[in-house]
């Protein structure tokens, strides 16, 4: 596998794991088969002209887009199986980490990975438990005629999703602990970020309390942070598509599109609240001067 660190804003980074070709002797796991089966079924429902399957897909896609991109990123990292643990610990299979040198200093790459692997660990464990508690409560809905048991299957999916994200984080922690990562700066990523037109969305206050990306302040000024106390976008949708094309990773496009959309919305919301508070403060100051 190969890991990518892609800064979305000056405070937030997308983690993505590219699954490389499996060895001929290695069989597809049941989890991979089930995931592929579900994807094919979902795709088939999307092609429907109408009916409850089409409605489920429409509402489902709306809900899926709002699942935090950090969760999707961790889910892309395969669980640490015993076979993989043995291969990696022997050093037979080091994991490459690709990142833009113009935005992330090499010394900070491991810290960014550690943050992404651990910051949501407790949340995924807690949400997994709640999903498991809710599944037997919603299961009887399936006894009703005709009506599909959407709540139950949604909780099953969310439980699996939280488990995969938690497992992906544990895998990253294992790689960091055993120093099994090879850091590879990418000129391709640097070139894409360099063509990003400015100005981009920004907010005077950050949208997260645990920043997982920091802009490197280079001596030649190529990557000066224009908003050091707040947060500024580093990527838009158009350049996200350019990035997936330059890397020849079409499967990355939906991950980047979702991440950029979520961070843009968070920055717009934060900036709006900051503007409202400034107006209120200005009104208070104006009344005091009268």
Automatic annotation (TrEMBL):
Lineage top rank: taxon: Eukaryota
PANTHER family, per database record: K+-H+ EXCHANGE-LIKE PROTEIN, TRANSMEMBRANE PROTEIN
InterPro entries: Mit_KHE1 (IPR018786)
Listed name of the protein: Mitochondrial K+-H+ exchange-related-domain-containing protein
One GO CC term, this protein: mitochondrial inner membrane
Region of interest called Disordered, as start-end residue ranges on this chain: 270-290
Any one GO biological process: potassium ion transport
């Amino acid at each position: 596998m190969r890991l990518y660190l892609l800064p979305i804003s000056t405070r937030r980074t997308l983690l993505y794991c590219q699954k490389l070709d499996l060895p001929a002797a290695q069989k597809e796991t049941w989890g991979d088969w089930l995931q592929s089966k579900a994807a094919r079924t979902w795709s088939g429902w999307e092609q429907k002209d109408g009916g409850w399957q089409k409605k489920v897909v429409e509402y489902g896609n709306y809900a899926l887009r709002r699942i935090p991109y950090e969760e999707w990123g961790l889910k892309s990292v395969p669980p640490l199986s015993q076979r993989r643990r043995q291969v990696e610990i022997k050093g037979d299979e080091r994991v490459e980490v690709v990142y833009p040198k113009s935005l992330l200093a090499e010394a900070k790459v491991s810290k960014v990975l550690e943050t992404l692997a651990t910051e949501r660990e407790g949340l995924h464990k807690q949400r997994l438990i709640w999903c498991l508690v809710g599944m037997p409560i919603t299961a009887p809905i399936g006894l009703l005629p005709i009506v599909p048991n959407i709540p139950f299957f949604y909780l099953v999916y969310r439980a699996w999703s939280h488990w995969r994200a938690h497992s992906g984080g544990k895998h990253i922690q294992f790689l960091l602990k055993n120093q099994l990562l090879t850091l590879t700066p990418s000129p391709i990523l640097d070139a894409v970020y360099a063509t990003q037109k400015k100005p981009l969305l920004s907010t005077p206050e950050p949208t997260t309390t645990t920043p997982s990306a920091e802009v490197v302040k280079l001596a030649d000024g190529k990557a000066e942070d224009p908003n050091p106390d707040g947060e500024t976008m580093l990527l838009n949708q158009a350049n996200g598509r350019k990035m997936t094309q330059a890397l020849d990773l079409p499967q990355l496009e939906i991950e980047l599109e979702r991440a950029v959309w979520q961070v843009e919305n968070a920055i717009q919301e934060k900036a709006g609240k900051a503007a409202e508070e400034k107006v209120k403060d200005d009104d208070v100051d104006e009344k005091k001067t009268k």
